[in-house]
Predict the structure.
Amino acid sequence: MIKKFSIIILFLFSVISFSKEYNRIASGSPAVTEILYKLGLKDKIIAMDKNSDIKELDDMKIPKVSFYQMNTESIFSLKADLIILSTFNKADREDFIEFMKGKGTEIIYIPDVKSIKDIYDCIREIGEKTEKQTEAEAIISKMEEEINEVKEISKNIEKKKKIYFEISPFPSMYTFGKDVFMNEMLEIAGVENIFSDKNGWFIPSLEAIAARNPDIIFTSTYQVEDPIKEIIDRGNWNIIKAVKERRIYTISKEAVRPSIKVTEVIKKISEISYPEYYKK
């Protein structure tokens, strides 16, 4: 009787602890696509956001779908068993999520990412859901190691460079202040965001940027052919130190993605800002 009871308990435990395996995953943002790819799940991705740009996945002809303007019918037709969404996706996602769940599709919703820790949590959550916990922890450990290497250099920098980081060109010159993971990226790189006293994402005026007189300007703009020239040609901007000294640099659009590649962006910003500390 005891033996029979033990077998029943063992069976129930195995059923409860069994995780569903997902074989048809749809990625709702470029950042999520990068995480899935790095976790080794490329063969399970059946659709990805249209802005995802991993060459190997493009070569595999994986369909690209707009998860911003979500078309429920077209996404349902993908027959995904797991869809991962983020704040990048359209505001009426609640109705979409309820509909897909009602059809048996699992949904992960990644909330607004405000810090590097939030990125780790995102990687960890996706890793746990897809039974890639070991891989997720290895990725996080590697990111922490690379960030700590930059921090070791940054802590020796006495006079920090003032930075203006532009996400999109004039007139909608989006940038950011506190409570955005990119602001933490700048802090790690050892530079000072000229708008660190502001909150969230916003569009500053040309006058406000000029008044704060950044030493360096970074732009991840891809909407114009030559973003550096576009900045230089703005009226009256020659009074800005970064423009006068031509210290304007393009950073990959991956910079604005809360994903694995933030460590590469942090290091690049630090190397450009303080080449003397990276000569070795």
